[in-house]
Model the fold of this input.
Amino acid sequence: MGPEIGKMLMIVGGVLLAVGAALALNLFPWLGRLPGDIVWRKENFTFYFPIVTSLIVSAVLTLVLLFFRK
Done:
């Protein structure tokens, strides 16, 4: 069981590294600014809830995980 967990942790770490680099380099400028994302601004207060972005990311991750499932 040890080597399998090690390989999986390395893959997950690589994916997190790639996603972090893509976000840091602003390769997805639309991410978080989709129509349907909730932004509420007051004088010195901003409430931001990216609901549509969350739904799309969830759907993509679900499809990817279903693809890699046995």
Remarks:
- Residues 31-70 form one domain.
- Helices lie at 2-24, 51-68.
